[in-house]
Specification:
The complex is a heterodimer. Chain A is mainly alpha-helical. Chain A has one domain: Cytochrome-c3 Hydrogenase, chain B, CATH 1.10.645.10. Helices cover about 45% and strands about 10% of the residues of chain A. Chain A has a 3-stranded antiparallel β-sheet with strand order 1-2-3. In chain A, strand 2 and strand 3 form a beta hairpin. The two termini of chain A are about 35 Å apart. Chain B has one domain: Beta Polymerase, domain 2 (2-Layer Sandwich), CATH 3.30.460. Chain B is built from 2 helices and 7 strands. Classes of the chains: A mainly alpha, B alpha/beta. At the A-B interface, helix 2, strand 6, strand 7 and strand 8 of A face helix 1, strand 3 and helix 2 of B.
């Protein structure tokens, strides 16, 4: 190792608070023995079966009394090799795979995958399909944030919030079910467009959603935002500076809560986000309360965007008319042998994508969701890598937890909003 | 849209092969120049490391590489983002099979810690200077690196109960 390799340490371990033990030490609390005095730091294990860890996240905490000194998230319990699976599936099947990663924002996963494939294919997507994608993604953002508000409420002992959050999410999931056939894991956004047009009467459903949600958000304000106990548990807890957040690669509400105006929808617009009017919500302190406030207000902004999409959504095709990627209409299959063969070929063999590599990124509810796709010219991706925002955001957890109490740890883990399906893939 | 002409004048980037892929500048530094290139990019505002991943090109029929860059089996791909300039830049480094190692970016971008561990876990690429290069997704005692192309998908044998007899 040369001197140059370690010449630029910018942020030391003690700043980020990551717990590192020598390689031969097994993190087994049972093996630590009884000779630990009361003043010695203690290493305890939190999770993976802990109700507040939002899945199977395990955190090794080093404690001095009740104060967290260093910590280390241990992940991998949900690892199912989805990137390897992605190499075995055709591009048509791929969307079914990626949609299962972030199960609270499945449409965003499908979108980033489809955008990557379409960029390699170099095909044009009809405007209506793009607007439908935006509509569905913004509704998905609302449902994801509402779900977060619900679980966050439960973590902070506001059980009624849990029920309210799920009630609002249900409205949106019903609309998803009506449109895509499924409540989760939709496989709705596919390379080439979307799977089906919006159902009859969708305007009324969507209008009902965006008419209801803002009122409910005001109820949340009454229930949580102004409530002294809730504020006491959130304010000043788990502060992260913008510099540290950027250094640790944190994106999404964590980065914005620390005051950095960085939202890919506005910073590097994709789809038609440059044609709608919305504000990027930023915090000032970077504490747990700011992360709560950022998410709550992002729901309001998403409602604003959806209202604009309702007015702007044009008529037209909902998927590309490029024969290479789009199967023939159902009616054609009955009358044309070629159409039947064509349909069969697309769903068995798929289509071939020109060789190349591409990195696309979108703003998922949790931050920058990226997809690095390498094609070798066949009908399957050569390499499919998903940059999962939760995976990267989890690294800021030790920095957030450092110096706080164990009780704060619950609030902080919740405010990072990790979705373990996406972390472990 | 993106004016990245000034990047080529950076002392460490000058002389390294540059290509453009769909509007994104791609730098192909040698392994020795890798850290210097990343450091200079960090200094000119590419302060967010969006993504770091590895690719195993064992069975790839041929990829686009600029003249002067010889394709090796592994490739580490780093996507850097500049918040102030609203730009991205990509670094692709060739890593040979005989010595799959690379200096670590953790000192420069602490956020690459988990990403480098993932690349180590999945491809066996050793990042020199990484503070805690252990497996992250697979169990600690796992053998092999699953995303390598010579690592088969594998199957868990399905155990069917013996069919009940007629009596």
């Amino acid at each position: 190792m040369t001197d140059q390799e370690n010449a630029r340490p910018t942020i030391a371990d003690h700043d980020t608070g990551i717990l590192r033990l020598p390689e031969d030490v097994v993190l087994d609390p049972g093996g630590l023995g009884d000779d630990f005095g009361e003043d010695e730091p203690m290493i305890i294990n939190m999770g993976p079966q802990h109700p507040s860890t939002h899945g199977v996240l395990r955190i090794v905490l080093e404690l001095e009394g009740e104060t967290v000194l260093r910590s280390k998230p241990v992940i991998g319990y949900l690892h199912t090799g989805m990137e390897k699976t992605g190499e075995e599936l055709t591009y048509v099947q791929g969307a079914t795979n990626v949609t299962r990663m972030d199960y609270l924002a499945p449409l965003h996963n499908e979108l980033v995958y489809s955008l990557a494939v379409e960029e390699l294919l170099d095909i044009e997507i009809p405007p209506r399909a793009t607007w439908i994608r935006m509509l569905m993604c913004e509704l998905n953002r609302i449902s994801s944030h509402v779900m977060w508000t619900a679980t966050n409420g439960m973590d902070l002992a506001s059980t009624s919030m849990m029920i309210y959050g799920f009630r609002e999410r249900e409205m949106i999931l019903s609309f998803f079910e009506k449109t895509t056939g499924l409540r989760m894991n939709h496989n709705y956004i596919r390379p080439g467009g979307v799977a089906a047009d919006l159902p009859d009467g969708w305007e009324d459903d969507v209008a009902a959603i965006i008419d209801t949600i803002p009122g409910r958000l005001d109820e949340y304000d009454d229930l949580l935002t102004g409530q002294p106990i809730f504020r006491e548990r959130c304010e000043g807890v788990g502060i992260i500076s913008p510099e540290l957040a950027i250094a640790l690669g944190a994106t999404g509400p964590i980065l914005r809560a620390s005051g950095v105006e960085w939202d890919l929808r506005q910073s590097m617009p994709y789809l038609f986000y440059d044609q709608v009017d919305f504000d990027v919500i930023v915090g000032t302190v970077g504490d747990t309360f700011d992360r709560y406030a950022v998410r709550l207000n992002e729901i309001r902004e998403s409602c604003r965007i959806v209202a604009q999409i309702l007015e702007k959504l044009p008529r037209g095709d909902y998927r590309s008319q490029d024969k290479k990627v789009t199967p023939p209409p159902r009616a054609r299959i009955d009358e044309s042998m070629e159409a039947l063969i064509h349909h069969f070929k697309i769903f068995t063999r798929g289509f071939e994508v020109p060789a190349g590599e591409v990195y696309t990124a979108i703003e998922s509810p949790r931050g920058e969701l990226g997809c690095y796709l390498v094609s070798d010219g066949t009908n399957k991706p050569y390499r499919l890598h998903v940059r999962a925002p939760s995976f990267v955001n989890l690294q800021s957890l030790p920095a957030l937890l450092r110096g706080g109490l164990i009780a704060d740890a619950i609030a902080i883990i919740s405010s990072v909003d990790p979705v373990m399906g996406e972390v472990d893939r | 849209m993106t004016d990245l002409s000034d990047l080529a004048t950076l002392p460490s980037v000058a002389g390294q092969p540059l290509t453009t892929a769909r509007g994104i500048v791609v730098i192909h530094p040698s392994r020795d120049a890798y850290l210097g290139v990343a450091g200079d990019l960090h200094d000119v505002g590419f302060d967010l490391c969006s993504d770091l991943c590895a690719v195993d090109y064992l069975r790839h029929p041929g990829r686009d590489l600029p003249p002067g860059v010889e394709g090796e089996r592994f490739e580490v791909v780093v996507n850097l983002t500049s918040l102030a300039r609203r730009q991205r830049v990509r670094i692709r480094i060739q890593v040979p099979e005989s010595d799959p190692s690379l200096p670590s970016l953790v000192g420069l971008y602490p956020g690459t810690e988990a990403m480098e561990r993932e690349a180590y876990d999945m491809f066996g690429i050793v990042f020199r200077g990484h503070p805690d290069l252990t497996r992250i997704l697979m169990p600690d005692d796992w053998e092999g690196h699953p995303l390598r192309k010579d690592y088969s998908v594998g199957r868990v044998p399905v155990q069917f109960k013996e069919a009940p007899g007629p009596r």
